[in-house]
Amino acid sequence: MRVYFSYAFKETFSNLWRNRMMTVAAVLTVAVSLSLVGGSLLLKQSAAQATASWEQSTPVRVWMQPTATPGEISAVRSQLAQLPIVKSCVFTTKQQDFKEARLVISVSDLQFLTVADMPTSFRCTPTVPLDALTVETTFQHQPGVYRVTAPDQQIRAMAHTIRILQVVFLALAAVLLLSASVLILNTIRMAIFTRRREVSVMKLVGATNWFIRVPYITEGFVQGLLGSGVAMLAVWAFHTWYPLHNEFALDTAKVWGTNVVVLVAGVGIGSVGSAIAIRRFLDV
Amino acid sequence: MIRFENVSKTYKNGTPALTNISLDIEKGEFVFLVGASGSGKTTFLRLLLREELADHGRILEAGRDIGNLPRWRVPYLRRNIGCVFQDYRLLPNKTVFENVAFALEVIGRPRSTVENQVPQILELVGLGAKSKNLPGELSGGEQQRVAVARAFVNRPLILLADEPTGNLDPVNSESIMALLERINRTGTTVVMATHDKALVDRMRRRVVELDRGEMIRDQVRGVYGVEEGLAI
Known about the structure:
The complex is a heterodimer of chains A (about 280) and B (about 230).
Chain A: H1 2-18, H2 20-57, E1 60-64, H3 70-82, E2 86-92, H4 94-104, H5 107-110, E3 121-126, H6 132-139, E4 145-149, H7 152-194, H8 196-205, H9 209-241, H10 252-281
Chain B: E1 2-10, E2 16-25, E3 30-34, H1 41-48, E4 56-61, E5 64-65, H2 74-78, E6 81-85, H3 96-105, H4 111-124, H5 140-152, E7 158-162, H6 170-185, E8 189-193, H7 197-203, E9 206-211, E10 214-219
Parallel strand pairs in B: 3-8, 3-9, 6-7, 7-8
Antiparallel strand pairs in B: 1-2, 1-4, 4-5, 9-10
């Protein structure tokens, strides 16, 4: 067994060294593509975290018409109280809304606004953030309701942009991962070609198929491992030197989780690339 | 040791390589396989190595039908068969010692066995002093002796030789033949395909002649060509 491992180890590294330029190209391609995969995963987690945080902290606002009658207001109030998807609701008077408006509207605009112009509103927290949309559709056509604003409108717009970015990242990463697999496959193919004489002698003297194959599989595995190692460093460096802020900030556990995915993907494409090469080009 | 029972082999292009061959080779026998190029000698050896499978019939080695052997068992079969070829098939970047040791290393023999057996076999073939040379630094005869050493280092039950003297001058051919005879005397069955008339005639061993895939002669203590009254 010791002979077996020392042979596989020796052969793997001599193959890698012999085709070092191809090895470097394969490792770098794996590294770049997996960095993109890692970046994309960080972005996805970060976006999901920020979206959840915004959805939880921003209430659904049911704005009443300034001219809404007390009857219409109390009808909306009792409906909101009965709705199981609404956790809690706070009624905001015209004065309170005017006070809030003063914080966000410029002084010049404020001179045309009076308390009487202000609508009253209900500030509601849905049981589940996703139910904000249901609250919106339920109340927007109710008598006396001016409009319903839910946080998901803005969040959805941002999430959409993030999703597009993510798809672009992942598509690019997929193309690069494919080219990395092909490069690994080609490196193994070259190694098999270079050593075809040795392989034929090995077959003649009774080396087992796995004894012949293992150094080539290990070669692909090592290339994938090295590539994912570089990509993990890149993900870590990105997290350390360009940390995301506020709701986007990710904790260390999530970065490690991403790096585990990067590692598994790297080792996976390395092994798959070499397995295909062996199947196609190594006749044992 | 080796039994062919109505063995036939046709290549994919429809060329018949061997047709209905039946013969027995006993343990410790020395058999010459003669015939023109394309007569089926190499196919005969490839079938014994299970590099090819017979289309019809059975081939038994040490009582075991090698056609029924699962693929993963084939390497273990080959560990009992040594092979020598006309083109030596040595690894040019390995020394004489490493070439012979390679045959033991790739079947997982421990380092101590390698270090013990390789010098012995190199002494046997008369290359003890050249163990550190590369094949390119040796003559054709010496390279073939390395190939014989590699084939025999694992003490196989059968030794197959495909035109081992084809590239050698008469002196080197004689030395290779002497070596094969010596190996044969240890009890190893030797099957040798050859065109070397002088050698076959001088050795007077069993001769199996093939012609376009058919066995046309199986002669005990035979000669290269047909000898009247002796054909069986």
